[in-house]
Amino acid sequence: MAKVKMSKKSTSIDMTAMCDVAFLLLTFFILTATAKAPEPLPVDTPSSTVQTKLPDSDLAMIVVGKKEGKEKVFFGVKGREVRKAALEYMAQKYKMEFTDAELEQFSLIDEFGVPMEGLKQLIAMKNSDRNKAGVQPGVPCDSINNQLNDWILYSRKANIDVNQKELQFAIKGDAKEMYPEIKKIMDMLQDQKINNFNLVTGLRGKNF
């Protein structure tokens, strides 16, 4: 008995609607995504397999590394209102005055590395100019001029004023950085009775 051959017809799928959806999704993600701001003091953190995340609030970051061949320390604190309150405390301490506009502009700066006498100039700069070579020499933290210690103290007070919580601290140090510089920061925190703090590391895979 002869077999009946079924005629083969080519199938076609209209992909127009699928392409429209794909382009709409792509446009949505591009418009809603925020570009990561360049770090003012890039550091290569030590490797670790620990996956504990830092808190999104009530946190101060102390960054220790080298830039332009010199050891530098940068400081930053989470929360715009906390930043403004901390600067107001520092202004009283160092007998300086900042306008409301300067306080507002400072609240937008995540991390900085200048002494108090250079802070007004840094605030007045465009964001793209702040990371240029030679602009930020680091926050002074030596025995003669220890402004970092004051920033730590007054940021703690500011966070209690604003959030009614104790500020947590994290140290982000370069893996190639000499240990004494990190130890000096730890001693500074412990002098203020801060015995619990985080050390920021880079996540690496486990070696089997």
**Can you write the helix and strand succession as a string?**
HEEEHHHHHEHEE
Summed over residues and divided by their number, the pLDDT gives a mean of 82
Give the quaternary arrangement of the chains. Answer: single chain
What structural class do the secondary elements suggest?
Answer: alpha/beta
By DSSP (H or I, 4+ residues per run), the number of helices equals 7
Strand content: 5-15%
* Cα radius of gyration in angstroms: 25 Å
Query: N- to C-terminal separation?
Result: 66 Å
Enumerate the strands of the largest sheet in spatial order, edge to edge or round the barrel: 3-2-4-5
Q: Biggest sheet, in brief?
A: 4 strands, mixed
Query: Based on DSSP secondary structure assignment, what is the total number of beta strands?
Result: 6
Low-pLDDT residue spans? none
> How helix-rich are the residues, as a percent range?
25-40%
- The dominant shape is elongated
